[in-house]
Amino acid sequence: MQICVVGVGYVGLVTAGCLAEAGNNVVCVDNDSEKIARLRNGVIPIYEPGLTEMVKHNEKLGRLHFTTDLKYGLDNSLIIFLAVGTPSAEDGSADISAILSVASDIAENLSDYRIIATKSTVPVGTHKKVTDIIKSKTKTPFDYVSNPEFLKEGAAVEDFMRPDRIIIGTTNQEVQKIMKQLYSPFMRKRSRILFMDPASAEMTKYAANTMLATRISFMNEISVLCEKLGADIERVRWGLGSDSRIGSAFLFPGVGFGGSCFPKDIRSLIHTGTVNGVEMTIAKAVRQVNLNQQERFAKLVIDYFTGRDDQTTLAVWGLAFKAKTDDVRESPAIYCIKKFLDFGMKIRAYDPEAAQAATTALEGKTGIRHGRTSNRRIETFQNGYDALENADGLVIFTDWQEFRNPDFGLITAKLKKPVIFDGRNLYEPDVVKQAGIEYYSIGRAPV
Ligand code: NAD
């Protein structure tokens, strides 16, 4: 099939790569000309396991094209996917201006029948806004599909290739047939396509993200009580997750969720509730618990070092919002590091993929990228152990595999005072204690 993907970010590039891998011809359109130029030169702008090889392979075979020319994409495709960003506006609503602007550009350039499919996460009712804009500008026939994306960063290619479900939000049976054919390579064992109306498809995406975030916030709240009462949240997690009615996914306590989706989608759902006179009590609580959790973790570290005469230097492992991604949007690590810097601390950080993105996100904070390297308040390293050199403690924010079984002897030798603050509960407290390291984690007694 001939496909166009507008917006070549985490969702757009993965969608384009995977569809090309299935044999489709895909034109990728983005208004960021620098990004398109880099992609044409084989530079993949994001880290996502398996993505680089797949994109390069399909580009070489002529199945993937990169352009800033939307008209070229429209002229050469039957299905046009919208995968542009929908960030939070000031009032918490989703800013769908990029979606509406692309819809308007599509209308102005539409010369033949096309299917417009939205992958971006958009508030309920966006299908009508997009349809109205296009109809107001052109007589060329088109159909609209709400096709929300459920991939998760860090496993995006895998998720796209083996989706739990594909949601096709249209009641038009001809369009349903075409979309089913497009997705058939990804569901060879059994069909996992769910057809529904566009409003329900749009709502499903928000409900899914808020439900997942609810599980995390629930566990984080229970973890606070565990700390107070001497229970161990990890034992509680096992006990809870083994109930088949509950299941074990998304029950991990930690430093709070972040990323480009959960926080903004929850804010957007709360806003949608407000403008429609519905109090989103649970979504509000989920958000508040998450903010509290990040704050609590930052405070734990800061309180530990309060009152020292010397400037505190912290080693940090993990900067992105989770492992296996370089995405630092709304990362709890960035949130806490800003607090540490405000407190006057120095940071020596390591992340296998996100050092550059984190440095950019933290730029503007006092001392960052200013002066000679020795004067910088935040430095990044190529290796986790180099970041430990002469630091006063280690703070862990993400659960990269390489952090899970470290050389505790080396950690002890390199830190000035061996102490770990673990925002992901990566270790058994007894093991860390035996290595002579003081250990603070989430929902468990410090040792
Ligand atoms: P992103 O910021 O990584 O990518 C968005 C891309 O759109 C950028 O390359 C940007 O240059 C481009 N763009 C913006 N305006 C444009 C325009 N007018 N014309 C052409 N290109 C334009 O965003 P993302 O993380 O891929 O998310 C995209 C959407 O998918 C969002 O609605 C998000 O909520 C949703 N989503 C994201 C994920 C995820 O894990 N990142 C998962 C599921 C759904």
Please give a handful of descriptors for the protein shown.
447 residues; binds nicotinamide-adenine-dinucleotide; Rossmann fold; 2 domains; six-stranded parallel sheet; 17 helices; alpha/beta; single chain; globular
Write the layout of secondary structure elements.
Elements: E1 2-6, H1 10-21, E2 25-29, H2 33-40, H3 51-60, E3 64-67, H4 70-75, E4 79-82, H5 97-109, E5 114-118, H6 126-137, E6 142-146, H7 156-161, E7 166-169, H8 173-183, E8 193-196, H9 198-229, H10 233-241, H11 262-275, H12 281-305, E9 313-317, H13 332-342, E10 346-350, H14 355-362, E11 378-380, H15 384-388, E12 393-396, H16 408-414, E13 419-422, H17 429-434, E14 438-440
Parallel strand pairs: 1-2, 1-4, 2-3, 4-5, 5-6, 7-8, 9-10, 9-12, 10-11, 12-13, 13-14
Helix pairs in contact: 1-3, 5-6, 9-11, 9-12, 11-12, 12-13
Bound molecules: nicotinamide-adenine-dinucleotide.
Nicotinamide-adenine-dinucleotide (NAD) is lined by residues 6-12, 29-32, 35, 83-86, 98, 101-102, 119-121, 149, 151-153, 260-261.
